[in-house]
Specification:
By secondary structure, the chain is an alpha+beta fold. It has one domain: NADH Oxidase, CATH 3.40.109.10. Helices cover 38% and strands 14% of the residues. A four-stranded antiparallel beta sheet has the order 1-2-4-3, sandwiched between helices. The longest helix is centred in the middle third of the chain and has 25 residues, at 125-149. It is globular. The structure holds flavin mononucleotide. The site of flavin mononucleotide has 13 residues, from strand 3.
Length: 207
């Protein structure tokens, strides 16, 4: 929209209270060690039932989530983890494998009723791959914020061998691991020194 000469700031819907903004963003930290607590099936359903509403291109929802919670499943995951990620992933209540469905577009006729978007992706592997990666990454990020909003701590990780995870958890080849997210309750103070964030002027411009 073109700005008028004397712009009037948009009147937003109610802003979340400062405590909620702290919990989601300002004081939330990436967990590096976890308390031994159980995260229930109900909590995992609650998590998904929030994150599923956040937007994806064409409402395609390419992410798939494997909630690795049992000791046996953690043992399957362990060989794929980078050395520095082993202890915290085994300690976390759940390690989520965020994967992408390489054939997400098969769901489009139902998931995106506005018009037929499936033909855009059939036979265009590069577009399908980019769309699956971009939107499953977004959905993983939504999961982190949903977890924080439900009072859980999260620890995303890209330090793992995706090929090993794919072999062990997705042998059909249809799904590909994107990244991992540890979930649970962080041990008090179990995080690295807070790294500074780049300032608005360092990263943004308003044209
Ligand atoms: C996609 C992604 C991958 C990450 N991979 C790892 C990892 O493999 N191991 C690790 O210890 N931390 C990993 N991190 C954690 C980041 O280093 C951490 O979120 C960042 O430094 C911000 O920390 P803070 O939330 O405590 O401020 C990853 C974070 C993201 C979002």
């Amino acid at each position: 929209m073109t700005q008028t000469a004397t712009p009037v700031a948009a009147a937003p819907k109610a802003t979340l209270n400062p405590e909620a903004l702290d919990q989601l963003f300002r004081t939330a930290r990436t967990a590096q060690a976890f308390e031994q607590v159980y995260v229930s099936d109900q909590q995992l359903h609650d998590l998904y039932n929030l994150l599923k509403f956040a937007p994806t291109a064409f409402n395609a929802q390419p992410a798939r989530f494997v909630f690795v919670r049992s000791a046996q499943a953690k043992e399957r995951l362990k060989p794929a983890l980078s050395a520095g990620n082993v202890d915290k992933s085994l300690a976390a209540s759940v390690t989520v494998i965020v994967a992408q469905d390489t054939r997400f577009f098969e769901h489009l006729p139902k998931q995106f009723p506005a018009y037929d978007a499936k033909p855009l992706f059939v036979g265009n592997a590069a577009l399908a791959e980019a769309t699956a990666f971009r939107n499953s990454s977004l959905q993983g990020a939504y999961l982190i914020l949903a977890a924080r909003s439900l009072g859980l701590d999260a620890g995303p990780q890209s330090g793992f061998d995706a090929e090993l995870v794919n072999k062990s958890f997705f042998p059909s080849g249809r799904y590909k691991a994107n990244f991992l997210i540890n979930l649970g309750v962080a041990k008090k103070g179990a995080h690295y020194v807070r790294g500074p964030r780049l300032a608005f002027d360092d990263v943004a411009e308003v044209l």
